[in-house]
Amino acid sequence: MERSAIFPKSRFQEFFDLMQEFGDVFAPRRVSEKSFSFKQVKNPSEIAFEALRTILPPKKFFFQQRETIISYDENGVRETKPKVSPQVLFGLHPCDLAGLGIMDKVYSASPPDPHYMARRQATLLVGLSCMPDKHCFCKAMGTDSPTSDYDLFLTDIGEDYFVQIHTPIGLQMVGSKKELFSGSDETKSQAFKDFWTTRDQAFTSHFQSENLPAIMDMEWDNKVWDELGNRCLSCGNCTPVCPTCYCFDMVDVASLHAQAGERVREWDSCQFVGFAKVAGDTNFRPGPVDRLKFWYRHKLHGFEDPHGLPTCVGCGRCTESCPAGIDDIVSVVLRLQGKPSVLISDRTTGATNSDCCGSDGGCGSGCGGCGSTHGSTSGGSPGCGGTDTGGHPHA
Ligand code: SF4
Ligand code: SF4
């Protein structure tokens, strides 16, 4: 299904009211001079239309950072039902829609995850066009156009929004407010085409992604991994900010009298030193080089499993948030391809593991340099190198 409509920007309030009829509206809001976060909005004036990438991707609405899965006491074990209410996510760019598409594949695969699916099914997705900055490379990953994972997608064509309608519920939204929408005409259709042509030419970070998985296989022992891995702080910043990092840990929290407790699922990161640690004190990926290379493999090659696809959608969040300036995927790929490349991040600190704050795990930041086995996504410390979010991403 693909239909289109037009509505004037000057009547955005009416479009906002329409979204509110379908659920609570969440959209990018400015939370600091340089950063944005998806938060509930009650008025269009709260929306940061200029936001390119939010600190955390929209996965946080479906795959929650921490949630109780089951609880138990002397009366038995109970499954925790997710609290769900209708919601509309507004302002998702093509990379984030593609990221959610990958999350959907993983969490809807048999057996589907009831928590993720319940929230996903209660959510409408309204996308919004954007112009790339120096960190965006969705074009290289083939995720630069809205894919099938949206209900409506708005393209800014000047005085109007061009609306792509992709699902029956999207059509229902538009049909329920016929007075707001009109059909496209030749001028507006041309404006739509011109926007996407201009956008295509605006990318400054790019590489040819053909045969990338083969190159990742071929370059497994490339010295770039040692070079970058030895600068990695194992802080884990690159995983919560990634729209497709879906790993979690399970923690059983028992009461002191041990007769009640709960099983909690929380985000984990393959960059943490304890992620691949198993009984007998064996660690499959003991050093930051092993872990960084493994993370890059998942992003650019994919695992050999039913979801074995590259999972990077080119959003640039990891590049922007890495305190060591080494998650510069475009530069790394160019080097693996044997092309001239330097790290383009203008925030490179040259930090190494030894630059950790040295608080021996007590800081709670879990940057890993101190040897702590697990980190936290809710704190932050100067030892993490500092990001726009003041440490680990938490919005
Ligand atoms: S954000 Fe950078 S320093 Fe931190 S774990 Fe990822 S690659 Fe390493
Ligand atoms: S690997 Fe980096 S650029 Fe790619 S989707 Fe994840 S955060 Fe975005």
What would the principal axes of the Cα set say about the shape?
A: globular
Q: In percent, how helical is the residue content?
A: 25-40%
SS-derived structural category:
alpha+beta
In percent terms, what proportion of residues is strand? 15-25%
According to DSSP, the number of beta strands is 13
As laid out across the biggest beta sheet, the strand order is 1-9-8-7-6-2-3
**Largest sheet geometry:** 7 strands, mixed
Radius of gyration equals 22 Å
Bound molecules: iron/sulfur cluster
Low-confidence parts, pLDDT < 50 over ≥5 residues?
345-391
- N-C termini distance: 34 Å
What value does the average pLDDT take? 87
Instruction: Output the number of helix runs.
Output: 11
Order of helices and strands: EHEEEEEHHEHEEHHHHEEEEHHH
